[in-house]
């Protein structure tokens, strides 16, 4: 194969810092996402200053633009103006099309034939607006596929645990009583089995090292948000399910993770816990994205700065 032919098929490396920047303006509003090119242009035009706080979508906290190596590397404008204040609120486009132009650069979405605007912390895929979790006003760390995929697997784990720990034992006890011909005075056995099953259900993740039967099958684990790695305690296991026993509120609690940037139920917030992928399921997700990017002639991004353990520690 010739040198020219090899150069055509050689994948182009992804630079995740090319897109996905948020700007915290002096008016206490957050603007974005914008591309790195647009961010540098705003610095050159003195719309924002070197002291304006900016955060990449893979970073947990915002820092001054001057302290962001990915922004300032090989960027040496003659003057970036005063270090005080900014004019972003006045210069920010009002039209959606113009805001979209500020967010896009050369990276393409891993899932659609559109320009990417953000990079997912979980799967490392650059993704477009169609893949953004909603509502847009929130700064999500994961793409819509990962956001909903993780929580859908949590529902699957819940179903598995309910069947294995509650319904199957009750059914077995009922069948045993029917076969032995026990009278109604023996029906208390079913109540005992039911109570034991409910207790095990509350502490199932704690008893099995952070992942009960259902979560292990779904490739998930529950960790303490204080460090992102330690499995939850028995007390946390009970607290995180209290919200599901409050009438009507349990319906809200069940749906809120779809629109929460950190995929938390209220029970997770009260208990200080977070549900994240196991190492094996995470590797599979990233390998899937890697294959899609290679087909597009793109070499996947290197390991991003934030790990899933870091993600679990976000408050």
Give a quick summary of the entry.
With 315 residues, the protein is of the alpha+beta class. The protein has 2 domains: 6-144, no CATH class; 146-279, no CATH class. Helices cover 43% and strands 10% of the residues.
Supply the key terms.
alpha+beta; single chain; elongated; 315 residues
How would you explain this protein's 3D organization?
- This protein has a four-stranded antiparallel sheet with strand order 3-2-4-5. A two-stranded parallel ribbon has the order 1-10.
- The model is unreliable at 1-9 (pLDDT under 50).
- Helix content is 43%, strand content 10%.
- The chain has two domains: 6-144, no CATH class; 146-279, no CATH class.
- It is built from 14 helices and ten strands.
- It is elongated, with a radius of gyration of 25 Å.
- 34% of the residues are buried.
- The chain is an alpha+beta fold and 315 residues long.
- It has helices spanning 3-9, 36-44, 69-72, 88-91, 96-103, 144-180, 188-202, 204-207, 213-218, 234-239, 249-255, 266-271, 279-295, 308-313, and strands at residues 12-13, 21-24, 30-34, 53-56, 63-64, 118-119, 126-127, 220-224, 273-277, 298-299.
- β4 (53-56) and β5 (63-64) form a beta hairpin.
């Amino acid at each position: 194969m010739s040198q020219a032919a090899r150069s055509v098929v050689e994948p182009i490396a992804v630079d995740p810092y090319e897109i996905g920047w948020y700007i915290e303006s002096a008016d206490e509003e957050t603007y974005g996402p914008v591309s790195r090119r647009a961010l540098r242009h705003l610095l050159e035009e003195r719309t924002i200053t070197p002291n304006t706080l900016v955060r990449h979508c893979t970073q947990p906290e915002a820092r001054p633009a001057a302290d962001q190596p990915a922004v300032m590397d090989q960027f040496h404008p003659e003057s970036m103006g005063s270090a005080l204040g900014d004019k972003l609120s006045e210069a920010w486009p009002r039209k959606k099309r113009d805001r979209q132009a500020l967010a896009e650069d050369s990276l393409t979405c891993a899932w659609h034939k559109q320009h990417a605007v953000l990079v997912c912390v979980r799967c490392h895929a650059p993704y477009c607006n169609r893949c953004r979790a909603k509502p847009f006003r929130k700064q999500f760390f994961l793409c819509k596929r990962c956001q909903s995929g993780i929580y859908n697997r949590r529902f699957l784990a819940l179903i598995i645990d309910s069947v294995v720990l509650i319904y199957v034992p009750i059914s077995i006890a009922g069948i045993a009583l029917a076969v032995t011909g026990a009278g109604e005075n023996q029906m208390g056995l079913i109540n005992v089995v039911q109570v034991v099953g409910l207790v095990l259900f509350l502490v199932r993740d704690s008893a099995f090292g952070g992942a009960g039967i259902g979560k292990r099958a779904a490739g998930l684990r529950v960790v303490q948000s204080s460090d992102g790695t330690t499995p939850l305690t028995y007390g946390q296991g009970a607290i995180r399910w209290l919200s599901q026993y409050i009438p009507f509120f349990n319906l809200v609690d069940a749906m809120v993770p779809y629109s929460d940037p950190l995929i938390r139920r209220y029970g997770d917030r009260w208990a200080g816990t977070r549900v994240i992928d196991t190492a094996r399921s995470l590797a599979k997700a990233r390998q899937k994205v890697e294959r899609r990017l290679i087909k597009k002639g793109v070499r996947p991004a290197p390991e991003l700065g934030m790990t899933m353990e870091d993600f679990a520690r976000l408050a």
